Amino acid sequence: MTPLLEVRHITKEYPGCRANDRVNLCIDMGEIHALLGENGAGKSTLMKIIYGVVQPDEGELLWRGMPVNIKGPAHARQLGIGMVFQHFSLFDTLSVLENILLSLPAHEARDRLRVLRQLDDMGKRYGMHLDPHRPVSTLSTGERQRVELIRALLNEPQLLILDEPTSVLTPQECEGLFASLRKLAADGCSILFISHKLQEVKDLCQRATILRGGCVVDELDPRETDIDTMAARMVGSGTATHATTRPGVQGEAAISVHHLTLPGFSSHEVGVRDVSFTAYKGEILGIAGVAGNGQACMLRALSGEQLSQSDDVRIGARGIGRLNPAQRRKLGMAVVPEDRLGRGAVPDMTLVENALLTAADQGLVKKGVIQHGALRDWTSQLCKLFKVKTAGIDAQARSLSGGNLQKFIIGREVLQQPAVLVASHPTWGVDIGSAVAIREALLTLRDQGCAVIILSEDLDELFEISDRMTALCHGQLAPIKARQDTSVEEVGRWMGGDFSDTPPAAESSAIAAATAAHSDLPQENRHAQA
Amino acid sequence: MLRLERQPQDSRLMAWCSPLLAIALTLAAGALLFAVLGHKPLESLYEFFLGGVKDIYSVGELGVKVTPILLCAVGLVLCYRANVWNIGAEGQFIAGALCAGMAALAGLDIDTPWYAVVIMLAGMLGGMIWAGIAAWLKTHFACNEILTTIMLNYVAYNLLQYGVHGPLKDPQGFNFPESAMFNDNHLLPVILEGTRLHGGILIAAVAVIAVVLLLRYTHLGFKITVLGRDASAATFAGFGSKQLTWIVLLACGGLAGLAGAGEVDGPIGQLTPYISSGYGYAAIIVVFLGRQQPVGAVLASILLGLTYLGGETSQIKLGLPVSLTELFQGMLLFFLLACDLFIGYRLRWIPRVHPA
């Protein structure tokens, strides 16, 4: 059988890097094909070439056996290639229907009734129900993704490209998405699924192409390959893919939050509502949750960038809610923010200057005078200990790759031997090798008696290193449970806003009960189960 | 067609070449201007910029012009480093001169040269109060400092007019809008025999050195730079932006106030309606031309000082109006801002693509 799409010897070079090097890829009709690789492996470039955004330097594309030169996204759509990007392009103030009509050619958009009928058909067929008249601003992330998906599907594509579609979803929402994708594939639509989450790929895909450094290193059947093997192929042999998990020894209370309620910085940002928890010395407390559920506000409240009532946040018995970040640092606090450039580090300052940003109390400033010698030594030591790859300590922060800069920032905070470390997405966008190093550093810090709080979307990571787990949803904190007493399913439910303590068997009644309490999110779950 | 493209990284080379290029373009445009006015372009340019500096007296005159510009500019370097866009050095200069003048007039009979210190401190205080108003408005009501400082310039100017036309007018002055002459004993001493160059230039030199040290070696200087480069990093690190805003504005106000005090208690010797020739505005150009570096500001303030001298020379020798000074200053800033665009952007020629 002729494959639907064949990519032959595609090469694309950017200044200073070969993004794709003689890449071959073959997608059959009705197949769900995974494209695996770390950040920077060349996945996005390949995807852009297939969707016509970028022209390859060499090589050719065969569509149904015929060579094609895809001139642009419009041409790609004409051929029957649809794409859902990781970042949505929806107008918040318009309704679902209006957003969909906007993406259609004028003559089709005029026939609203026909589009409504199509939406209804599609909803029934693929289990993707949406009220066409709801404003997009009231939709959850999962529902927004559904709008994007439906937009792509209205074009009746034969090949649908999904770029990391699950990075914004709870596990339950993922299940719903996968059910829809399987039905689509059964109807003959091929799917190119881009991800670096291996469990998902194993659950969903029939074939996987693994990219590393711009080259195809393997093509395999993920259903028959275990995850560690796939991970090893992705990162190359000899790289550890896991931190050695070990339980922590819980000590006395280090930092506690008491009925903290704060607004977000803007009307679009979720704040936190009545959050209480305690983090103990020698433990890692993992706070899961899809970004945008109050994590940013929580981090600011802990770091001191957003002030609260004095006793709402305490280190030991001392209320620190009114203290600024520098004062909190003097009490042993260290923070890794979610934004690296432009908050955790000043882009056009050198690494030396960026070390001084938060580490002044390490004897690097005496009586207001910067100790340049000590500062340079400290920075060199930091780069050496945390294997920061850089042209030198006088390199600008912006010149470092994301993973290296993250290692630098984590290292800067860890090296200060804090009593409390709060880290947001510590390994986000970091390659597996660096991620392992970062997790090891966090575990070591914990073993030395530091209380570590991690806010992350990555459940695998949280389950790997946390001693206790909870989740944030709509600014509220789920119950806190020891890692061994909870499960991915339960934390997933917490992330979706269902905090009830019920065994999985009674899940549907729990959702029904939660529906009464929360209006939009449980709807998600209901759809997911449909 | 030509297209302007964002460069991946700012060009450091261009950051330093831009002021030189701007000066070259200003000279070219100036030559053209002289030619259109019917003067020999090159000779007139020479006359304008260097014709005024030919003996020790005129070098002293240059120093007299450079002193207030440099003092204001050094303060503005701090403000602009912190992204506090203080346009009010002019107002702070006038407020300083006014306070210094009041102190001088109040102590006319005190018989010690050390009274000059009181006069200078009064000037410094005046400038700090004036800048403090803008700092208070910014930190408490989030008022944009660009607007408040510009408006405070006019308030200060009109306060000065009120003073010299009213309560501070010399009773024996034949109703001229001027204060009495200050006590000769209280004036800043002349430091170069045969010129008008006064002790203010030493104060300016100390200020330059202090700011260099502050920015290079102290934590406070680092905090100011971080606040300007990346406000959210400053918040993250706990460098209080309100506190830093107060510090830079008060420092700038103090220095501009000293500049004003040095003018009235030096070369002018009394309060008149025209104590500033726009030194506070010229200082803004100086800071941009000097790349927000104190040492750069020294070089740039000498250049701006030359435009002041040039205005006077060309009035005498070429019969051209003294506003030539402002014209050259304006061209300089205009070309500089235009050239600065190419620090972050570059021009590229893109052949027109004809649809196949």
TrEMBL record, chain A:
Name listed for the protein in its UniProt record: ABC transporter
Nucleotide-binding recorded as keyword: yes
ATP-binding found in the keyword field: yes
InterPro entries reported in the protein's UniProt record: AAA+_ATPase, ABC_carbohydrate_import_ATPase, ABC_transporter-like_ATP-bd, ABC_transporter-like_CS, P-loop_NTPase
Organism: Pokkaliibacter plantistimulans
Comp. bias intervals (Basic and acidic residues): 521-530
Residue span of region Disordered: 501-530
Record-linked SMART domains: AAA
UniProt domain ABC transporter: residue ranges: 5-238, 255-499
Lineage: Bacteria, Pseudomonadati, Pseudomonadota, Gammaproteobacteria, Oceanospirillales
CDD domains: ABC_Carb_Monos_I (cd03216), ABC_Carb_Monos_II (cd03215)
PROSITE patterns: ABC_TRANSPORTER_1, ABC_TRANSPORTER_2
Keywords: ATP-binding, Nucleotide-binding
Compositional bias segments (type: Low complexity): 505-519
First and last residue of the signal peptide: none
UniProtKB/TrEMBL annotation, chain B:
InterPro entries membership: ABC_transp_permease
Keywords assigned by UniProt, alphabetized: Cell membrane, Membrane, Transmembrane, Transmembrane helix
Keyword Disulfide bond found: no
TM annotation in the entry: 12-36, 56-79, 91-108, 114-137, 146-164, 197-215, 244-262, 268-288, 295-311, 327-345
Keyword presence, GTP-binding: no
Superkingdom classification of source: Bacteria
Membrane-topology annotation of the record: Multi-pass membrane protein
Compartments it resides in: Cell inner membrane
PANTHER family, per the entry: ABC TRANSPORTER, PERMEASE PROTEIN, GUANOSINE ABC TRANSPORTER PERMEASE PROTEIN NUPP
The protein's name in its UniProt record: Sugar ABC transporter permease
Taxonomy of the source species: Bacteria, Pseudomonadati, Pseudomonadota, Gammaproteobacteria, Oceanospirillales
